[in-house]
Write a structure and sequence with these properties.
mainly alpha, about 0% strand
Length: about 120
């Protein structure tokens, strides 16, 4: 699960950076505000890569997905991209858990099939 979720988060890192560049063009937004918010969101993406398997990591990832979709009020394209990344996040969590379960089953089978050396 960690690999799939981390890959999604790194993709979001770059999308948030590019969205910050687009948001900079808005004359109503201060450049410092845009880069503070974008920088915090980008930092959270990297931080979540490390804590995604810990308790609350998945929930924080969902919070980031909601924030990414909500950023569409500033950069309208982010409604679409946020929805895409939310779907990718769901798939990463869902299929990542299935992969982890399969790995655990294979490891258990391998342990049970090895003869004990006495």
């Amino acid at each position: 699960m960690r690999t799939l979720c981390s890959s999604t988060l790194i993709g979001e890192f770059f999308v948030i950076g590019f969205a910050g560049l687009v948001a900079m063009k808005d004359p109503d937004l201060a450049m410092s505000t845009v880069w503070t918010v974008s920088g915090i969101a980008m930092f959270l993406c990297v931080l979540l890569c490390g804590v995604v398997t810990r308790p609350g990591g998945i929930a924080l990832g969902w919070a980031l997905q909601i924030a990414l979709i909500a950023s569409g009020f500033i950069v309208p394209t982010m409604f679409f991209l946020g929805a895409i990344f939310a779907a990718l996040w769901w798939a990463s969590v869902h299929y990542g858990k299935k992969v982890d379960e399969a790995k655990a089953r294979f490891a258990a089978q391998a342990d049970s099939s090895t003869p004990d050396a006495a």
